[in-house]
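Sorry, explain these C-alpha cells?

___
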Amino acid sequence: FGSSCLVPNILSVCIGKCALGKFRVRCTDTHQVVHPALVPEVGMLCAPCKGADKETDTVKIDPRAFKVEREAEASTTEEQQQHEEEEKRRSDDQKRLAAEEHRLAEEERLAQERLAQELAQKQRLDAVRRQEDDAALKRQQEHDRRRAEQLERHKEEVDTAREREEEDARKLEKWLAAKKFHDPNAKKSKWFKSSLPLHQAVVDVNAEMVRILIAHNADVNAENSSKQTPAQLAEKLSQKGPGKYDSVLSALRR
C-alpha cells in the first residue's frame, strides 16, 4: 500500500480488498492506495461491499475536522495524564502525610509509655521510701518507748533505793541508839571485853541489820576482843545451833 499520502481533501474508499482481506482506500488527489488503518474514520464508516463502485461507494472526510479532533484527543490525553500525575502526587503526599502522622503518633505513644513507666517507677520508689520511713519511725518510737520505760524503771528504782536507804538509816540510827553504839564502826567495851556493831548484829541473829551496817561502811574485817571477825563469830555460834546463823553468814558474804 502507498504510505506517502498525507490525508488529502477527499478520499475515495472501497476500491476492493487487499491480500489480507482489508478494504483499500484510494486518495483522490494523488490516486495512491492508503490502508484503512491510517484513516480510522474510514474503517468505522465503511461497511463490507460486494463490489467497488467509485461513484456510489465514496466517503468524504473533512481533514480539518479530523485534525481538530485528533488535537482534541491529544489534548484530552495530555490533560488526563496531567490529572493522573496530579492525583498520583496528591496520593503520594497523602501517603507521606499519613506516614508522618503515624510516625509522630508512634513517637507520642512511646513517649507516653516512657512517661508512664517513669511515673510508675517513681511511685514504687516513693512507696518503698515511705515504707522505710514508716519502719524507721516505728523503730525510733519503739526505742523511745523502751528508753522511757527504762528511765521510768530507773527512776522508780532510784526512788525505791532512796526510800530504802532513808528507811535503813532510820532503822540503823534507832538500833545503834538501842545498842549504845555511836556509829557503825564504834567499839563498845565492858568488863575487859569489846564488841562492835556487826558482832552485836551477829549475836542478835539480825541479818537485816548486818546488811544495813555493811551498807553504811561497817568494817567486816574488824575483830572483837576475842580476835574474831563477824564471820568467824557467826561460824562459831552456828556450831551450837546449826542453820540458825545461815542468814547472817549469807549477809556477811555478799
Summary: The helical segments are 40-45, 63-179, 197-203, 207-215, 230-238, 246-253.
